[in-house]
Design brief:
It is a single chain. The protein is about 40% helix and about 20% strand. The chain has about 350 residues and is α+β, with helices and mostly antiparallel strands. It has four domains: about 1-90, no CATH class; about 95-145, no CATH class; about 155-225, no CATH class; about 230-340, no CATH class. The strands form three sheets. Strands 5, 6, 7, 8, 9 and 10 form a six-stranded antiparallel beta sheet that branches. A two-stranded antiparallel sheet has the order 1-2. A two-stranded parallel sheet has the order 3-4. α8 (about 175-190) packs across α10 (about 215-225). The structure holds iron/sulfur cluster. Iron/sulfur cluster (SF4) binds next to α3.
Length: about 350
C-alpha cells in the first residue's frame, strides 16, 4: 500500500525519505549500529525489515512486546531514528510530526515530555480533531482503499479492542503464516513464563482457537514442527517492593538451554527427567492451562523474596540470558532462606 500510494506522492513532491534500521540490538546515541536502508527523494521501495527486527529481538529474549508500556517502540524505532534525526537537523530546531489521533491525547502529552530546546513534537491529527475513523475515511477518499495497521503484525495494541482485533484476525486469515509467526513468539514466551500473553496478558492462541481460525492454527503447528527445540532451565528470583514488601518489586531471570534437538527428542528427554526425578520427589510435573508441560524444581511462594525454577521444552530461538551475578544472587537467595516450595 505504501509503495503503491505513498511513495509516488512523496517522489512527486520531492520529499526526502530516509529509511533506517538497527543492524544490531543495541545502538549508540551517536548512531553506531544504525544502518541507512534508503535515502531518496524518489523512493520506490519500502523496507520493512532491517538486520535486527523487533521480532528477532523478542524471540531471542523469549518475550513479547508488553501492552503496559511501549519500550518496544522506543528501542526499535526511537533508538534508530534519533541519531539520524540529530544528524539531519545539525543542531537546528526542528518539528517532529507524529500521527497520534484525537483519541490519543495522553500519548501526545507523553511524547511532548521528550521535547528539548531543539525538538518540538507536533500532532496535526489532534489539532484537527481527527479520530482514527476520520483519518481512515480521508485516506479512503484519496486512494479508495484502507491501509491496515500495524507494520508490527504482533503488536499487542492492535488487540486492544474488538474492532482492531477483527482487522488483525482478517489479516491472519489472509496470510496464516503471519499469524503463525506471532503465535510462535507467544508460545516461546509462554513456555518461559506462563504469565505472558499477547492480548494484555491473555493468550492470543486461545482467541485464535475461539475464532476457529483453522488455517492459522495449522500453519502454527507446521511452523512449530519445523523448529529446532531445546530443554530450557528457567530460574527466577522475585524480590519485594521497597515501599511494600508484600508486593513484587522486581524479578531477575536466568534462561539456559540445557540441550537441543528435535521437538520429539526434547519431549522424550523431559518425560524421562520427569519420571526419574519424580521418583526422588524433586520435580513436579504440570500441564499448564496453555497446554505446555513444565517441570518445577522450585515453586514461587506468596511472600517475597522467593524463587522459582522450571524446565520446559520450547523452540530453540531464545538465547541464554542472565545477569553475570545471577548465580551469586541465587545462592544468596537460597542462603537467606528465600521462601520457595520445593517440589516434593
Ligand atoms: S507497533 Fe506495536 S509492537 Fe510495534 S513497536 Fe509499536 S507498540 Fe511495539
Amino acid at each position: 500500500m505504501i509503495e503503491e500510494h505513498v511513495l509516488p506522492r512523496l517522489a512527486a513532491a520531492g520529499v526526502r525519505l530516509v529509511q533506517v534500521a538497527r543492524e544490531r540490538r543495541h545502538v549508540t546515541k551517536a548512531g553506531d549500529g544504525v544502518v541507512i536502508l534508503d535515502d531518496s527523494r524518489a523512493p520506490t521501495q519500502l523496507y520493512t525489515d532491517g538486520a535486527c527486527t523487533l521480532y528477532d529481538e523478542m524471540v531471542e529474549a523469549g518475550t513479547i512486546p508488553q501492552s503496559g508500556n511501549r519500550h518496544c517502540s522506543i528501542h526499535a524505532k526511537g533508538d534508530a531514528l534519533d541519531p539520524v534525526i540529530a544528524r539531519l537537523t545539525r543542531g537546528q530546531p526542528y518539528r517532529h510530526v507524529m500521527g497520534f489521533e484525537a483519541g490519543e491525547r495522553r500519548r501526545a502529552e507523553k511524547d511532548a515530555g521528550y521535547n528539548t530546546d531543539l525538538r518540538t513534537g507536533v500532532y496535526p491529527l489532534i489539532e484537527w480533531g481527527w479520530f482514527r475513523d476520520d483519518a481512515v475515511a480521508y485516506i479512503d477518499s484519496v486512494i479508495q482503499a484502507e491501509v491496515g495497521k500495524s507494520a508490527c503484525t504482533f503488536c499487542p495494541f492492535a488487540f486492544a479492542n474488538m474492532t482492531s482485533r477483527r482487522e488483525v484476525f482478517a489479516r491472519y486469515t489472509d496470510d496464516p503464516g503471519v499469524g503463525a509467526q506471532t503465535l510462535l513468539m507467544e508460545h516461546l514466551a509462554l513456555a518461559l513464563n506462563p504469565a505472558q500473553g499477547l492480548v494484555g496478558g491473555r493468550r492470543l492462541v486461545d482467541m485464535i482457537r475461539d475464532q476457529k481460525l483453522a488455517g492459522v492454527l495449522d500453519s502454527f503447528d507446521q511452523l512449530l514442527s519445523e523448529q529446532m527445540h531445546a530443554v530450557y532451565d528457567v530460574r527466577r528470583i522475585l524480590r519485594p517492593r521497597k515501599s511494600d514488601p508484600a508486593k513484587l518489586g522486581n524479578a531477575a531471570r536466568s534462561v539456559r538451554a540445557r540441550m537441543r534437538g528435535t521437538r520429539e527428542d526434547m519431549d522424550a528427554i523431559l518425560a524421562r527427567l520427569a519420571a526419574e526425578e519424580r521418583a526422588q520427589g524433586v520435580l513436579e510435573r504440570e500441564v499448564g492451562e496453555d497446554g505446555i508441560v513444565r517441570l518445577y524444581k522450585h515453586r514461587r511462594d506468596s511472600t517475597f523474596p522467593t524463587i522459582e525454577r522450571h524446565f520446559v521444552v520450547a523452540p530453540a530461538l531464545a538465547i541464554a540470558k542472565e545477569h553475570t551475578r545471577f548465580d551469586q544472587w541465587w545462592e544468596d537467595a537460597l542462603a537467606a532462606g528465600a521462601t520457595a516450595r520445593v517440589a516434593a
